[in-house]
Amino acid sequence: MGGLAAIAESEVQSFEALVATHRARVFRFALASLRDRDAAETVTQDCFLRAYQARENFRGDSSVQTWLMKIAVNLIRDAARSRRCQFWRRTSASAVLLDSAGNFIPDTGSSPEARASAKQQITAMWKAVDRLSPNQRRVFLLHFMEGMDPAEITEVTGITNATVRVHLSRAVRTVREKLRKQL
Amino acid sequence: MNRHLSDNEIGDWIAGLQGGEAADHLRECAQCAAEVNRTREALVLFRDSGHQSAAYWQAQPGARRSWNWVPLLAAAAALIVVVALRHRTVTPVPVPAPTQEVFLRIPYVVPPAPYERTEVVRMDVPVAALIAAGLKVDRLAGETVSADVVVGQDDRPLAVGFPENKQ
Questions:
Q1: Which helix (H) or strand (E) covers residue B121, if one does?
Q2: Is the pLDDT of residue B140 over 50?
Q3: Would you call A42 exposed, middle or buried from its count of C-beta atoms within 10 A (0-12, 13-18, 19+)?
Q4: Which segments of B15-92 does DSSP mark as H helices, in order?
Q5: Domain residue spans in chain B?
Q6: Does B148 touch chain A (CB under 8 A)?
Q7: When comparing pLDDT for B88 and B125, which is higher?
Q8: In the prediction, which pLDDT does B81 show?
Q9: B54 or B129, which is more confident
Q10: What are B147's strand-pairing partners?
Q11: For all residues of chain B together, what is the average pLDDT?
Q12: Fewer CB in 10 Å around end: N or C, chain A?
């Protein structure tokens, strides 16, 4: 029994290490996709719970990171579907307002004018991204927020490489158009 | 390439979907290069703000884990009850007759287009959300009610019905 307990404990410890390594990324992608802190936390917890439950099935065909992001993408899709109504979202206390996104400006020691301009650009960009279709937004965030190339996005989302490229191209075009109108 | 890059070509270049010819043009054309740089800078700001915002919110204690809120919420709930008892001017939900439509249109929402696909989703809705949407409800703002919501193609709520009123 003592041996089994030791194995179980070491398994949990190694899983905790995996959580510590990948948690920030899963949470970041969930938050950017759902714009709701509570929903992003729930998705992150569910993601690692599902990963733990399915750890026996992980054969190492893809990286752990890709595997986790694949789970996260599915959970985010479900969460977005179940929430549905925009005005429920608006009244949610944990909703991260798009207007507040501009407050998170990289500190580059720039002038107040440059910071104001950066803030304006960031807010406009989040608004533009928020108006993309769910597929375009998903692909856009995976590429520009998480730095994934189309091949990785294909693996994570299950969308064909050609479709990923179409979504990415249209998303960038739409965002550029919206930025031009807003700025 | 003698002409400037089109919007699509610039977008595809930024997304990493364009190859050689665009690269050659960008090396020679300051105008197109400036356009690419402007968008790239905005994308970098966007990425960094996303990373910083996630790091910030992850470091904050979650609302559902913050037990310090319990006494505050209890006090707020007690205050609401006291106010409600003192001003018993609650407006009841208009109960439609069986022949009338059972859904209440949500005010200030653009009605669905004739070709638009809609669906009804049953959900637990905070009364505060209904009040915020412009509906009159005879419940306390802190409560939740079960409702059937007509949802448009773009996920906007169009109308709401209350199963308890249908019986």
A1: strand B119-126
A2: yes
A3: middle
A4: 20-28, 30-59, 69-86
A5: 7-59, 104-166
A6: no
A7: B125
A8: 61
A9: B54
A10: B123
A11: 75
A12: N
* Closest C-alpha to A131, from A98, A164, A166: A98
In DSSP terms, which residues pair with B145 in a beta bridge?
B125
- Taking all residues of chain A, what is their mean pLDDT, rounded to a whole number? 84
Number of C-beta neighbours around residue A147 at 10 A: 9
* Residue range(s) in chain A whose domain bears CATH number 1.10.1740.10: 1-96
B57 to chain A: which residues are within 8 Å by CB?
A: 31, 37, 40, 96
Within 8 A by CB and 6+ apart from B56, the residues are: A104
Return the higher-pLDDT residue of A110 and A2. A110
Which token pair is B38? 């402007």
Tokens linked to B18 = 């364009």
- B47: nearest CA in chain A? A145
Cβ neighbours of residue B57 closer than 8 Å, sequence gap 6 or more:
A31, A37, A40, A96
Tell whether the model's pLDDT for residue A111 goes beyond 70.
yes
**What single letter denotes the amino acid at residue B56?**
Y
Give the number of A-B residue pairs with CB atoms closer than 8 Å. Answer: 132
Which burial class, exposed, middle or buried, applies to A98 when counting CB atoms under 10 A from its CB (0-12, 13-18, 19+)? middle
Q: For domain A97-183, give its CATH number from 3.90.1170.50, 3.40.50.300, 1.10.10.10, 1.10.3720.10.
A: 1.10.10.10
Nearest CA in chain A to B65: A38
* CB-CB contact of B118 with B150 (8 Å): yes
Q: Class of A1-96 per CATH?
A: mainly alpha
Give tens-digit pLDDT for A15-48.
Answer: 888 899 999 999 999 999 988 888 899 899 999 9
ipTM, two decimals, is: 0.85
Q: How far apart are CA B13 and CA B16, in angstroms?
A: 5
Chain B CB contacts of A176 under 8 Å are: 7, 10-11, 39
The amino acid occupying position A13 is Q
pLDDT of residue A3: 62
> What is the model's pTM?
0.66
What confidence tens digit (pLDDT) does each residue in A119-153 have? 888 888 998 998 899 999 999 999 999 999 999 99
